[in-house]
Amino acid sequence: MARILSLGSALNDIYLIDHDDLTPTEIGEESIFGKILVGSKIDIDKLSYEVGGGGVNSAISFARHGHEAILMANISHDAAGDAILRALDHEGVDTSYIDYVSSKATGSSVILLDSRGGERTILTYRGVSSKFDNFTPDDLDRIHPDFIYITTLRGDIETLTKFLKKAHDSSTKVMFNPGVKELEKSTEILRLLKHVDILLVNKREAAMLVPGESLNELIYHLKGYLDTIIITDGPMGGIATNGTDTYRFGVYEDTKIKDATGAGDAFGSGFLAALASGKDFRKSLIFASANSTAVVSKIGANKGILTNHVDLHPMPIQKI
Question: What is the 3-state secondary structure (H, E, C) of 223-271?
Answer without folding.
Answer: CCCCCEEEEECHHHCEEEECCCCEEEECCCCCCCCCCCCCHHHHHHHHH
